[in-house]
Design goal:
It contains seven helices and no strands. It is mainly alpha-helical. The protein is flat.
């Protein structure tokens, strides 16, 4: 069923990004002298965290418009975005936990960045539950209210003592080696392509089913 939904362009793009991702993850020599092959988790964890924050911003925008306009398509888009957000955030927390064991010697520490990401995931699950109950406006206001979590996640390492490292990549510059940086961005594009395609597929299936 899924393969039948692939256009020729989709197929070529899937193959290109897939083989590029496999090359970057398993063939390219990016071993770290301290973390060894676990360093490759960087190319999964960091892009997924970026995507998680991006989805959160899209959910905030979608919730705002959902309050103003009672369109079924907006309601549907927010549900699909929420589902993808929960999956992406869960995997980012999981990979971060594994990476944390190598770096800190523990799968979980009372680190504010990790805790706020978990709180965000639970909050979006509650948002999904409100939408499921048909409380669209209440869900929209709730989502906008918990948007403050974005600020907390961004600056929590500066405000409080934290074992999590500071941001290595921002609009000003990067402290990451360029040999790692371009791999990060290619992985990010690969995940975006996969999730955009999955988003299109889910929306199409739901619209046809309704």
């Amino acid at each position: 069923m899924i393969l039948s939904e692939l256009s020729v362009l989709d197929s070529y793009m899937w193959l290109f990004f897939f083989f590029m991702f496999v090359y970057l993850q398993y063939i390219l020599d990016v071993n770290n002298m301290f973390q060894g092959n676990y360093m490759r988790l960087l190319f999964v964890h960091v892009p997924l965290v970026w995507l998680s924050l991006l989805f959160y911003l899209l959910l905030l925008a979608g919730s705002f418009f959902m309050i103003i306009y009672s369109y079924y398509l907006l309601y549907l888009i927010n549900i699909v975005l929420s589902l993808l957000y929960v999956i992406v955030t869960f995997v980012s927390i999981l990979t971060g936990s594994i990476w944390g064991y190598v770096a800190w010697g523990s799968y979980f520490e009372m680190d504010l960045r990790l805790i706020t990401m978990m709180v965000m995931n639970i909050s979006v699950l509650l948002y999904l539950f409100l939408l499921y109950l048909g409380q669209i406006r209440l869900g929209g206001y709730y989502m906008i209210f918990i948007g403050i979590n974005l600020i907390v996640i961004k600056y929590c390492m500066y405000w409080f003592s934290s074992i999590h490292q500071f941001s290595s990549v921002n609009i000003v510059g990067s402290s990451v080696y360029y040999s790692y940086l371009y791999v990060l961005f290619i992985s990010f594009i690969y995940f975006i392509w996969c999730l955009v395609w999955l988003f299109r597929l889910i929306v199409k299936e739901v619209m046809v089913g309704s």
